[in-house]
Amino acid sequence: MNHLLGHIGLRSTPSDYCCRSLASVLGLNVSFPGNTTYLATQESYWSLQEASLSPTCIVIPKTAQDISEAISIVSSIESCRFAIKGHSHAPAAGFANINDGVAIDMTRLSSVAVNSDHTVASVGAGASWLDVYQYLDSLGLAIAGGRNGAVGVAGLTLGGGISYFAPRVGWACDNAVNFELVLASGEIVDANATCHPELFRALKGGGNNFGIVTRIDFAAFPQGQILGGNVVNDISYRGAVFEAFAEIATAPEYDIYASLVTGLVFSTATKEWSLSTTAIYTKPVSNPPVYQNLRKIPRTADTLNITNLSTLANETAPPLLNWAFFTGTYGVSATLLSRIFDSLNTTIYNFIIPGGISWSVAFEPLPTVITQHGDQNGGNSLGTSPKDGNTFVMLLTGIWSNTSSDALVEKTAQKMVEDINGIARSMGLLNDFQYINYADPSQDPIGSYGQLNVKRLRDVSKMYDPKGVFQLQVPGGFKLWSH
Questions:
Q1: Are residues 341 and 410 in the same domain?
Q2: Contact 309, 142 (CB under 8 A)
Q3: 252 falls within a domain
């Protein structure tokens, strides 16, 4: 292995020692700065915050056994810190990359297969959702997964996972029937409703706190073409669009085939807002009644058409820029939506940084028909339930190029969310839940699951990872032992 170890030279930092140890066992599955494989991983990050970090080495395993060997090594070296990378759509620095440590790039574990009766799809944890949909579309099947095909399977599922199919079958994690994962000890285990059930539940919402997931088996179901596209309105019609959104999201009999996201984008260049609703109907129905009132509002564009999931999910890759995500969950009210818009506009309109910034806010229904699935198949850890009523999840996003403005953007976005929470609280519409896949590091999504779920998660962590390898050696993500 001298040709590999030569990349590290005579340095002797803890991460150098860790990487030498990994290379001695895993050989060419370990790459170093300057290597084309290393560079390919570094160039695949989605945000500048992640791409700017430089691991000492990158492990790119091909099998669960490779990961077992890697974890056995790093867990025995307390000073060895590491990060776990799928498709890295959480933009915060360190969530899927690391400085002076080991990055484990899971993307070679991307196989997709179905069982003989087409009821279960087994997916490598490093697959993208586009990989999954392209395979399953050809079989007339689907599973509940991410809406942007570039998003990774494991990251989305371990955080809950919002899906176009959620009103029919619940969160993506509710549809996992088995997780294969590597524990801190290096042991490879299956967690499901009958084998390690407490770990199975913890993985559904608990993030990267328990091990490295290598494969997820999902309940599959027959699925043909769907209706999908965007309805675009002038911003002056936002009140009518918010009324239509609220009508759909609070319907006494929610149409379980309907999934929508109403999004607003502000351009600092033009000082103008754009308004668009992504409307999905998971049946091949051209004009479903649920969207008729939305489509009666004067439109500047309407691209709804019958298509398949893989086509719809095959989105253009965004530019490599700085990204910030913030989230909140609220009771549904058209008045609240309007007040959120007004509050954001007050701050955003005159917020100027070098190079400019684009802001967007998305509203996504979280009706009781989704949360009622939370107790199925062993339950999940999210703490959402029908007793919360019909709510919606907000994603506030900032996108900018000038890294020197990072702290100012973060502070400003925090204040915007605090203001929104204050408005919602005054209306009796603030919900505790914070969706972990949309949360900023300054937020506390795991704490929002409720005391019982936090205790369960901590107990499982201490049971399966008593030394705290995934708490102390994996700095990225939302940790449990700090609660």
A1: yes
A2: yes
A3: yes
**Residues spanned by the domain of 196:** 112-223
Query: Of 143, 136, 51, 145, which Cα lies nearest the Cα of 94?
Result: 51
Helix (H) or strand (E) holding 155: helix 153-158
The three-state secondary structure class of 107 is: coil
CATH number at residue 263: 3.40.462.20
Number of Cα atoms under 13 Å in the Cβ half of residue 79: 9
**One domain for residues 160 and 81:** no
Strands 82-85 and 102-105: parallel
Q: Are residues 251 and 350 in the same domain?
A: yes
The dihedral formed by the CA atoms of 203, 436, 229 and 169, expressed in degrees to the nearest 10: 40
- Cα–Cα distance for residue pair 197/214, rounded to 1 Å: 17
- How do the pLDDT tens digits run along the chain, 483 residues long? 444 444 444 457 889 999 999 999 999 999 999 999 999 999 999 999 999 999 999 999 999 999 999 999 999 999 999 999 999 999 999 999 999 999 999 999 999 999 999 999 999 999 999 999 999 999 999 999 999 999 999 999 999 999 999 999 999 999 999 999 999 999 999 999 999 999 999 999 999 999 999 999 999 999 999 999 999 999 999 999 999 999 999 999 999 999 999 999 998 888 999 999 999 999 999 999 999 999 999 999 999 999 999 999 999 888 899 999 999 999 999 999 999 999 999 999 999 999 999 999 999 999 999 999 999 899 999 999 999 999 999 999 999 999 999 999 999 999 999 999 999 999 999 999 999 999 999 999 999 999 999 999 999 999 999 999 999 999 999 999 876
* Residue 422 CA: distances (Å) to CA of 411, 418, 419, 425, 430: 17, 6, 5, 5, 8
Sign of CA dihedral 86, 87, 89, 93: positive
Which two structure tokens, joined as six digits, stand for 14? Answer: 């803890």
Give the pTM. 0.96
Q: Are 163 and 362 in contact (CB under 8 A)?
A: no
Give the containing element (helix H, strand E) for 424. Answer: helix 406-426
Query: Is the same domain home to 144 and 59?
Result: no
